[in-house]
Design brief:
Radius of gyration: 21 Å
Number of domains: 1
Oligomer: single chain
Order of helices and strands: HHHHHHHHHHH
Strand content: under 5%
Number of helices: 11
Number of strands: 0
Largest sheet: none
Structural class: mainly alpha
């Protein structure tokens, strides 16, 4: 009987932790200034990584239009809204003809600053001191993994032209690839200071939030692209893309925060229950 009573109390405690999870994540987000860091993520992504992705996407053989394909897919755009985004970028031939090895190397170096910002935020979320300066190789690996994950979406032009099969393959690959990447990225940037098991909930939460953001984009951002393109021209389209990138940054950081809160909850549940 005492054992059953203890199990009941443990189950009740876990249920309370689940119900308190959104509130704790919200409070933790305010403490680490989640929105401000998400806005910085969007700015860094657009300034440092998008130019690099434009070049790399143009160099990959595909029937698509390069980086615009990825943005349109992430925002769930089609028709006029997808055309408005495509008009922001030069054609493949123009990109490749004006790109030099020196400019490509410079873009890669600048792109590392994005991973540096992500690492600092992960450390802040997990209450860890900053890693040593010579750990920049971790940021290089994280950047390479991110680029590889993103550019996978431009390879569909190499596959047989069967819409249903390609959509299913890309969806499955996107979910699995995103889960493994964000699980590995946290472990990498945190210098293996947090156990794999503690990082998995954050990776799951990140992928789930990105899927939710895509649904939100279909119903909110897609119409905004068309209306802003008419009202403000290319600047209006850029504003919508930048807003979407803020959402991406928010989900990436909030996912890691969910993992940190879950770990704190498990540590709380692991405490011995008073038999009284």
């Amino acid at each position: 009987m005492p054992a059953k009573h203890g199990d009941h109390r443990t189950g009740s405690s876990r249920w309370r932790r689940v119900r308190a999870l959104p509130r704790e994540v919200w409070q933790g987000g305010r403490e680490v200034e989640l929105l401000q860091h998400a806005m910085a993520f969007a700015a860094l992504f657009f300034v440092t990584l998008v130019p690099l992705l434009v070049v790399l996407a143009a160099a990959i053989p595909s029937r698509g239009s390069g980086i615009a394909d990825w943005i349109n897919d992430g925002l769930a755009l089609s028709g006029r809204s997808a055309k408005a985004v495509s008009q922001l970028f030069a054609s493949r031939s123009e990109v490749l003809s004006t790109t030099t090895a020196l400019s490509l190397a410079a873009l890669a170096v600048f792109g590392i600053s994005l991973m540096s910002a992500v690492q600092r935020m992960y450390e802040k979320i997990w209450h860890l001191p900053s890693g040593p300066w010579h750990s920049v190789w971790r940021q290089v690996l994280g950047l390479a993994g991110l680029i590889a994950l993103i550019l996978v979406t431009t390879w569909h032009g190499l596959l047989p032209d069967h819409a249903a099969a390609i959509s299913a393959l890309r969806a499955a690959g996107g979910v699995l690839g995103g889960l493994l990447y964000f699980w590995w990225l946290q472990r990498l940037l945190l210098g293996s200071r947090i156990a794999w098991s503690a990082l998995l909930p954050g990776a799951v939460a990140t992928v789930a939030a990105l899927a939710g953001l895509r649904v939100f984009s279909r119903f909110v951002f897609a119409p905004l692209v068309v209306s802003n393109a008419v009202s403000y021209g290319a600047v209006g389209t850029v504003l919508v893309v930048q807003s979407w990138l803020i959402g991406v940054g928010y989900t990436v950081y909030a996912g890691a925060l969910v993992g940190q809160v879950c770990r704190r909850g498990r540590a709380h549940d692991a405490r011995p229950v008073d038999p009284r």
